[in-house]
């Protein structure tokens, strides 16, 4: 029963931090310190990645009309297929570098120092970018105006999220803003880009671990995904509503504070 409660808490943290540009890894490291799951290190690594599938499902539900390629209206179907093509093009850089560097990144950079530094660095970047863009009008105000070239360049920014603590949504949103998209387009395209990247990462972890899950492990995965899905629905809708009236600076300040907390906590311990 205690382990189930721990899984629920982790699912909630994943659902919130995956979509807000504050990086789920930093939070997961802290949560893992206080909530020690009774599972092997190998399964824990799989669990923390695979529950993201629940978060992805939330994107599919909220943006179903924009992502459904089987819609009857021909013009809308072309728009959806065009969107998917942009998603695929933008996903190529992270897929290539992710496959090449997955083991090295886990062995070398998955530690609290890297996470803390990246939390602070990208917190500062958010504040600087928003300050620089204040008063300037975006050149891309809808997803249909996003060119394939710009989509690919946003995908290059997404490669930076392979470094623990960077934040996948944070890197792609910053990329979008720098390249002239509105906050809404940057956030929306970031949501869409999560689908192939997170599905690919989950499949990669499962392939490395194998399919030999125990009943308890399957239960943990199922509960974690359901909780992450439910929480993600709330988090995504909150972010969409928030950025209509505000910029991303508050997330920058939050990242800096969290990075400092991570350093202080681990130095003390």
Helix/strand layout:
Layout: H1 2-17, H2 24-34, H3 41-50, H4 52-62, H5 64-67, H6 74-108, H7 112-133, H8 148-159, H9 168-178, H10 183-209, H11 215-242, H12 249-268
Briefly say what this structure is.
The chain has 269 residues and is an all-alpha fold. It has helices at residues 2-17, 24-34, 41-50, 52-62, 64-67, 74-108, 112-133, 148-159, 168-178, 183-209, 215-242, 249-268.
Sum up the structure in keywords.
269 residues; mainly alpha; 77% helix
Describe it for me?
With 269 residues, the protein is an all-alpha fold. It has one domain (2-268). It contains 12 helices and no strands. It has helices at residues 2-17, 24-34, 41-50, 52-62, 64-67, 74-108, 112-133, 148-159, 168-178, 183-209, 215-242, 249-268. α8 packs across α9 (168-178) and α9 (168-178) packs antiparallel against α10 (183-209). The longest helix has 35 residues, at 74-108. The protein is globular, with a radius of gyration of 18 Å. The model has no long low-confidence stretch (mean pLDDT 88).
* Terminal CA distance: 28 Å
The mean pLDDT is 88
Principal-axes geometry comes out as globular
Number of helices: 12
Q: DSSP strand (E) fraction?
A: under 5%
List SSEs in N-to-C order.
HHHHHHHHHHHH
Residue share in helix: over 70%
Q: What is Rg?
A: 18 Å
What oligomeric state do the depicted chains represent? single chain
Number of strands: 0
Low-confidence runs: none
The main β sheet shows up as: none
**Total number of domains:** 1
């Amino acid at each position: 029963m205690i382990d189930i409660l721990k899984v629920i808490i982790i699912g909630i943290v994943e659902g919130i931090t995956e979509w807000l540009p504050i990086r789920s890894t930093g939070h997961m490291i802290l949560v893992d310190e206080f909530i020690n799951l009774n599972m092997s290190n190998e399964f824990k690594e799989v669990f923390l990645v695979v529950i993201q599938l629940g978060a992805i499902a939330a994107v599919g539900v909220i943006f179903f009309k924009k992502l459904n390629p089987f819609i009857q209206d021909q013009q809308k179907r072309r728009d959806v297929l065009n969107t998917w093509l942009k998603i695929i093009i933008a996903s190529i850089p992270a897929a290539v570098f992710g496959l090449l560097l997955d083991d090295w990144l886990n062995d070398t950079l998955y530690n609290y120092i890297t996470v803390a530094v990246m939390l602070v660095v990208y917190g500062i970047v958010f504040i600087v970018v928003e300050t620089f863009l204040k008063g300037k009008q975006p050149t891309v105000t809808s997803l249909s105006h996003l060119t394939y070239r710009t989509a690919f360049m946003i995908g290059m920014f997404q490669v930076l999220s392979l470094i623990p603590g960077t934040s996948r949504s944070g890197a792609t949103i910053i990329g979008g803003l720098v390249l002239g998209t509105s906050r809404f387009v940057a956030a929306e395209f970031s949501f869409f880009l999560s689908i192939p990247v997170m599905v690919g990462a989950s499949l990669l972890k499962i392939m490395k671990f194998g399919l030999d899950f125990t009943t308890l492990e399957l239960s943990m995965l199922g509960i974690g995904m359901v909780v992450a899905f439910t929480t993600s629905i709330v988090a995504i809708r909150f972010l969409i509503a928030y950025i209509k009236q505000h910029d991303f600076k508050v997330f920058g300040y939050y990242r800096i504070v969290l990075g400092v907390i991570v350093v202080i906590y681990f130095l003390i311990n």
